[in-house]
Automatic annotation (TrEMBL):
<dbReference type="InterPro" id="IPR028202">
    <property type="entry name" value="Reductase_C"/>
</dbReference>
<protein>
    <submittedName>
        <fullName>NAD(P)/FAD-dependent oxidoreductase</fullName>
    </submittedName>
</protein>
<keyword id="KW-0285">Flavoprotein</keyword>
<dbReference type="InterPro" id="IPR050446">
    <property type="entry name" value="FAD-oxidoreductase/Apoptosis"/>
</dbReference>
<keyword id="KW-0274">FAD</keyword>
<feature type="domain" description="FAD/NAD(P)-binding">
    <location>
        <begin position="4"/>
        <end position="292"/>
    </location>
</feature>
<keyword id="KW-0560">Oxidoreductase</keyword>
<dbReference type="InterPro" id="IPR023753">
    <property type="entry name" value="FAD/NAD-binding_dom"/>
</dbReference>
<dbReference type="InterPro" id="IPR036188">
    <property type="entry name" value="FAD/NAD-bd_sf"/>
</dbReference>
<feature type="domain" description="Reductase C-terminal">
    <location>
        <begin position="327"/>
        <end position="387"/>
    </location>
</feature>
<dbReference type="InterPro" id="IPR016156">
    <property type="entry name" value="FAD/NAD-linked_Rdtase_dimer_sf"/>
</dbReference>
<dbReference type="Pfam" id="PF14759">
    <property type="entry name" value="Reductase_C"/>
</dbReference>
<dbReference type="Pfam" id="PF07992">
    <property type="entry name" value="Pyr_redox_2"/>
</dbReference>
C-alpha cells in the first residue's frame, strides 16, 4: 500500500523536506499544505533587494526540481488542528487529511505591537504580500518609523533610505542588533546607518500611534512625538504551532524535538526549519530554535532520514546532528555574514581581523572556544573561519 507523507507548511522548509524525502528514496504520496497562495519562495530578499524593486513572486520563487514535480500542493488554506494519535489533520475549510508520516514546517509569523492607535499604515515583513503592501507605501519623502532594531528592522531601514524615505528607528535596546552581535559591533553598524541618514531613538518604546483612520505619527515612552506616514513593526516572531494544541506537546517555543528532529519521541512525526527546537551537540544539550537561512535545508536532510526510518522505509542516521547555523544580512553596500552561534559567546567577543569601522571579522567565544564569527566584508576570510568553526569539537 502506498504511504502518504503530509508536510504542514509550504515555504522553504516544506519544499526542502519534500526534496529530501524524494532524494532519500520515498516514492509514495507527498502532500504539502500551506496557508499562503504562493508556491515556495525565498523570504530574506523581502526586506532587502526585493523590497527595493517591484515585489514579484517570480523574483523570489524557488525553482522546483523535477523530483518534486508530483508533490501535491494545497495552498491558501491553513491547517486548523491535528490529531497525532489518529494520524490526521483538519484544514480550515473543514477538509480532513490522513497521513502515515508528518513533517511540521509551519514556521513563524511576525509579532504585532498591542499598541493603541490606527492600524492603516502599519506593516510587518514576513510574506510576499507583506512586502508588496509595504513597497506601495515607500518612496521619496515617505516618513518611515521602524519599530525594532534587529536585522529585519535595520534591513528595512536601509532599503527605505535607498528609496529616498526619511527613516527613524525606535527600539528599547541601547544599540541596534545588540543581542546577536554585541555592543561594539552593533554600535559600529549604527554609525554606518547614521552616515546614511537614519535616525535612531534607542532606549525607548512606542506608547501610542497617532492619527485617525491612518497612522500619522507616534508618541514614545519618554513623551517624544514623531511624524510618520509608514510604520514597520519588526519586533520578533511567534511560532505557528496552535494547530498542534491538544496533543500533549511542549509548544512553549516552537516544537520540541530530539536531536534527530523527531517531535518529542513520537515515531512518524518530525519538524524542520525555524519552528523546530532541537539540541545541537556542536554547542551543548540545550534545545533551541534557530531562525537562520541555512536551517530549513539542514534540518530537512536529517528529518527526512528520521521519518523514513520510523516508517520502516530506510535506515536511521546514528551520527549526531550538529549543523553550523549560517545567515547573512545586506544593509546598503554591506554584506554581513554570520557562522555558528554568536549569541552563545556574547560574554567574550574579540575583533579577529580588520577594524569595526571598516571590514572586520568578530569572534564570539564560550569558555575560550570560538563558537561563532561575524564578518563584514573580507570575503577571502569566509572559508577559513567557517572551516575553523566546523573543526571545533562538539560539546561534551
Amino acid at each position: 500500500m502506498s504511504r502518504r507523507i503530509l508536510i504542514a507548511g509550504a515555504s522553504m522548509g516544506g519544499l526542502r523536506a519534500a526534496e529530501r524525502l524524494r532524494a532519500s528514496g520515498f516514492m509514495g504520496e507527498i502532500v504539502a499544505v500551506g496557508d499562503e497562495i504562493h508556491m515556495p519562495y525565498n523570504r530574506p530578499p523581502l526586506s532587502k533587494e526585493a523590497l527595493a524593486a517591484e515585489v514579484t513572486h517570480e523574483a523570489v520563487a524557488f525553482r522546483l526540481r523535477p523530483a518534486v514535480a508530483d508533490v501535491t500542493w494545497r495552498l491558501g488554506v491553513p491547517i486548523a488542528s491535528a490529531d497525532l494519535d489518529a494520524g490526521a489533520v483538519r484544514l480550515a475549510d473543514g477538509a480532513e487529511l490522513a497521513y502515515d508520516g508528518l513533517v511540521v514546517a509551519t514556521g513563524m509569523r511576525p509579532r504585532r505591537l498591542p499598541t493603541p492607535g490606527p492600524a492603516r499604515g502599519r506593516h510587518v515583513v514576513r510574506t510576499l504580500d507583506d512586502a508588496r503592501a509595504l513597497r506601495g507605501d515607500l518612496g521619496p519623502g515617505a516618513r518611515v518609523l521602524v519599530v525594532g532594531a534587529g536585522f529585519i528592522g535595520c534591513e528595512v531601514a536601509a532599503t527605505a533610505r535607498l528609496l529616498g524615505a526619511d527613516v527613524t528607528v525606535v527600539a528599547p535596546e541601547a544599540v541596534p542588533m545588540r543581542r546577536p552581535l554585541g555592543d561594539d559591533l552593533g554600535a559600529a553598524l549604527q554609525r554606518r546607518h547614521e552616515r546614511h541618514g537614519v535616525r535612531f531613538l534607542l532606549g525607548r518604546t512606542v506608547a501610542a500611534f497617532l492619527g485617525a483612520d491612518r497612522v500619522a505619527g507616534a508618541e514614545l515612552s519618554d513623551g517624544t512625538r514623531l511624524d510618520a506616514d509608514v510604520v514597520v513593526e519588526a519586533v520578533g516572531s511567534a511560532s505557528n504551532t496552535e494547530w498542534l494544541d491538544g496533543n500533549g506537546l511542549d509548544l512553549s517555543d516552537g516544537v520540541l524535538c530530539d536531536n534527530a528532529l523527531r517531535v518529542e519521541g513520537r515515531a512518524g512525526v518530525v519538524a524542520v526549519g525555524d519552528v523546530a527546537r532541537f539540541p545541537n551537540p556542536r554547542y551543548d544539550g540545550v534545545a533551541r530554535r534557530v531562525e537562520h537561512w541555512s536551517i530549513p535545508t539542514d534540518t530537512a536532510k536529517r528529518a527526512a532520514v528520521t521519518l523514513l526510518a520510523d516508517l520502516a522505509l530506510g535506515a536511521a542516521d546514528p551520527a549526531p546532528f550538529a549543523p553550523l547555523p549560517t545567515f547573512w544580512s545586506d544593509q546598503y553596500d554591506l554584506r554581513i555574514q554570520s557562522f555558528g552561534a554568536p549569541a552563545l559567546g556574547a560574554d567574550d567577543i574579540r575583533v579577529l581581523d580588520g577594524d569595526l569601522d571598516g571590514e572586520v571579522v568578530v569572534g564570539y567565544h564560550d569558555g575560550g572556544a570560538l563558537v561563532g564569527v561575524v564578518l563584514i566584508g573580507l570575503p577571502s576570510a569566509v572559508a577559513r573561519y567557517r572551516a575553523e568553526l566546523m573543526r571545533a569539537p562538539a560539546a561534551a
